[in-house]
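Thread: quick sanity check before group meeting

JM: Hey all, I'm pulling together slides for Thursday and realized we never actually wrote out the predicted structure for the chain we discussed last week. Dropping the sequence here so it's in one place. If anyone has concerns about the input, flag it before I start.
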Amino acid sequence: MSALSIVLVACSSNDEDTYVARDVEVIYNFAYDALERKRYRLAAAGFDEVERQHPYSVWARRAQLMAAYSAYMSNQYDDAVLAAQRFLQLHPGNASAPYAYYLIALSHYEQISDVGRDQEKTEEAEVALIEVIRRFPESEYAQDAQLKLNLTQDHLAGKDMEVGRFYMQRKEYLSAIIRFRRVVEKYQTTSHAPEALHRLVESYLALGITDEAQMAAAVLGHNFPESKWYRFSYSQLVDGRLSPEAKSNSWLSAIWPF
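JM (edit): ok, ran it. Output follows.
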């Protein structure tokens, strides 16, 4: 029997677990001690017990958020999200609400997988981080949330780029364009934006849509004039894919000041 069971549970004659009422401070302090000793699962169970035995006490409100934190520290991220959400449902105006939202965001963020896998958790992290910034822009959590949001969006853009390149290899250019345009429109501040614009140039040229290719190149040249992707697009548009008439187009010459 675990230490927590010894404190909280007694076995009845019919072999069913019977919870023994304990003083709320005894249970809370037991859970807090477990937390300090980094026995996070035990701590989470103890804080849950505070609410179970004393649901209307001030201690219960504290314990709800501590249970969420303990679950997060034990890598039980889904449990942490549920506990923090429960706290917010019961105490939406509490002074600790910003931290509860932040803890939800962290729990999703810690579950981000590499770009080769499904990005559901990454998208959930993005939504949760935006919520922290939107609700509490002046809080101590907003700055860190913004940094993590930037990384999260760069990750999502990377996933779109991977899928877009896959479609290009299969010569499914319309599907590739959808992915690259999403990067340009939704994640234009990420590190993937210059390549996305260049891939748009390539995809439009492959489809023979020269005007759209030139437009993508113009945006690339305006926003990322020092990028290698800018020069790659120049090479494809001017040296390889355009007719002599298009090469002499004065509008295109203005884009490529070489």
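AS: nice. The chain has 14 helices and two strands. The beta strands are 9-11, 17-19.
JM: adding both to the slides.
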